[in-house]
Amino acid sequence: MDKQDINNAFIERLEQLMEYKSLNQRSLSKEIGFSYSTVNKYCNKKSNTIDFELIYRLISHYSDINANWLIQGKGEMLQNNEPTEDRMNKLIDTITFQQDTIKNLQARINELETINKRLETQVALYLGKQIV
User: Fold this and answer.
1) Adjacent-strand bridge partners of 78
2) Domain 3-131: which topology?
3) What residue ranges in the chain does DSSP mark as E strands?
4) Residues 23, 31: contact at Cβ < 8 Å?
5) Residue 65 in 3-state DSSP?
6) Nearest to 15, CA basis, from 43, 34, 36, 38
7) Crossing angle for the helix pair 52-61 and 25-32, nearest 10 degrees?
8) Does the predicted TM-score (pTM) go above 0.85?
């Protein structure tokens, strides 16, 4: 699953949350104290990243929402009433895991870009030799 797929899946869950809470983008933004324009940008898929602050505010404000479901799509939307400290520890673990995954994927992208540049150079040199 690439970064855009992860973002799109998160947006789908955010929209499910808004529907469950009977909120639109503006009322959600107001309720959690977050920028409406940023929420709108996410929901309209005009951003390829999701702000940690949004995730934090959603989970902090809606204690009945399962953090694993919101972030990773695992489990049920509604919380099973585990203690807040446990929820926050799981949230931190989940975010740390996602950050590591993004870091690893970015490293792989950089590696592939380097390989691609090297191959492009080799092809150009090869084609240059054939023309002469």
Assistant:
1) 65
2) 434 Repressor (Amino-terminal Domain) (1.10.260)
3) none
4) yes
5) strand
6) 43
7) 80
8) no
